[in-house]
Design brief:
The protein is mainly α. It has 16 helices and no strands. Helix 3 packs antiparallel against helix 4, helix 7 packs antiparallel against helix 8 and helix 12 runs antiparallel to helix 15. It is globular.
Length: about 425
């Protein structure tokens, strides 16, 4: 027999920050998990149907990342000034429309334009969404919350890993890749409508404080505290140092994620279904990466976490470049999955730590712009190397070297703030 609730006893409702975190997760899923990483699964069928070279496939991803890079600073600044909710909603609608357009285009130029605007929308959704973490979560919980948010990318891997092969089998490679983009666009539209209906810019709009708020530790970030000026954000040397480290991640990981499936199919002789299954496994394991390393950064510091992550990722990229068979690919995949989306989470937490809740989206936008430079360059350079050497191994070796030198080395040179 169920116990009755005594009359007058208040019933505690879950803090709205959990709803916000769920929407952040879904926004990242649509903007990056589908808009960016879905491309890796669709790529083999697109390349075969359209007769694209490796350089052209790298260029398509670079156009996506160029759009992302060009939009991040403006997206962060608009979110800081007018609030993230409207910016995220419009951006996700852009993602949906551009993915539909990608599937409808018959020429390389048309697909490149579609990929560009998917990148623009991805930036407009991802940067303000991750910036919301600083508004809704206290400093002591920020790393973990950001880590959960970025795992929306992992959901993209888990969805596209089995979904794309199923669609290709059902509709054929020639039409199937176009159907994939149509389905991705529909999913992005649903997320856009949810964000428009349920997202809130700040806890104060609902009469709340950030979850875990402590006046002694977080008082400087309380609602109504003076906002750091845009000029002081851009003048911070520490911000640009962090941006350089973020560049290393963008350049290295995007080479790995863009050409991973293609390398397994073409160079290591795996079937597309088997490669998709491994991509799915990466997605499943990587769901842990963001919040595990976010929690590590909350407990032992952001710098310590970044050093560990770059070390593991650098080894992962080098192992894939040196692998002569599938065992090496599985080792590489495991190392990458353990760390996959953790660096964006930690960078979002650092932005909130240093610049506060109101200016965190702006600071994160500047950092992500430099990160985007690395992302835009990576696929193009990787594709050129693959065409020149007739192998993706050199591209993966380059990615590993950048992760270990600029990423790990640059992190070690960060001074305590």
């Amino acid at each position: 027999m169920c116990a009755s609730v005594r009359e007058g006893t208040p019933i505690r409702k879950p803090h709205y920050s959990y709803v916000t975190l769920g929407l952040i997760f879904l926004a990242v899923f649509a903007a990056l998990g589908l808009g960016r990483f879905g491309y890796s699964m669709v790529l083999p069928a697109m390349q075969s149907d359209m007769g694209l070279t490796n350089t052209q496939t790298g260029q398509l991803q670079s156009w996506n990342l160029l759009g992302y890079m060009l939009a991040v600073v403006g997206a962060g600044a608009m979110a800081s000034r007018w609030g993230p909710r409207g910016v995220i909603t419009v951006a996700l609608l852009t993602v949906a429309l551009s993915m539909w357009a990608t599937g409808l285009c018959a020429s390389f130029v048309g697909v490149a334009v579609g990929r560009f605007f998917t990148g623009v929308g991805g930036a407009g959704a991802n940067v303000p969404a991750m910036g919301l973490v600083a508004a809704w979560f206290s400093r002591r919980r920020r790393g973990l919350a950001a880590g959960i948010g970025v795992t929306g990318s992992s959901l993209g891997l888990m969805v596209t890993g089995p979904l794309v092969p199923w669609i290709l089998e059902r509709y054929g490679a020639q039409a199937g890749w176009r159907v994939c983009w149509a389905v991705f666009g529909c999913l992005a539209l649903v997320v856009a409508l949810l964000c428009a209906a349920c997202l809130r810019n700040r806890p104060a709009e609902l009469g709340l404080q950030p979850i875990g708020f402590d006046a002694a530790a977080d008082g400087a970030e309380a609602p109504g505290a003076p906002a750091t000026s845009w000029r002081s954000v851009c003048a911070s040397g520490y911000l640009w140092h962090l941006a350089a480290v973020y560049f290393a991640f963008g350049f290295s990981y995007i080479i790995y994620s863009t050409f991973f499936v293609r390398h397994l199919v073409r160079s290591l002789g795996m079937e597309t279904g088997a490669a998709g299954a491994l991509w799915l496994q990466i997605g499943l394991v990587s769901t842990l990466s963001g919040f595990v390393w976010g929690a590590v950064s909350d407990r032992w510091g952001r710098k310590f976490a970044l050093v560990c992550i770059f070390a593991l990722q650098g080894v992962s990229f080098l192992v894939l470049g040196l692998a002569q068979g599938t065992p090496g690919a599985y080792v590489s995949a495991a190392l990458f999955a353990l760390t996959a989306w953790s660096i964006p989470a930690i960078m979002a937490a650092i932005a909130g730590d240093i610049f506060g809740a109101r200016q965190a989206p702006a600071a994160l936008g500047v950092m992500t712009f430099v990160f985007g430079l690395g992302q835009a360059m990576g696929p193009y350079v990787g594709g050129r190397l693959a065409d020149a050497t007739q192998s993706f191994s050199t591209a993966f070796m380059l990615a590993g070297a950048v992760a270990l030198t600029l990423g790990l080395g640059g992190t070690l040179l960060l001074r305590r703030r």
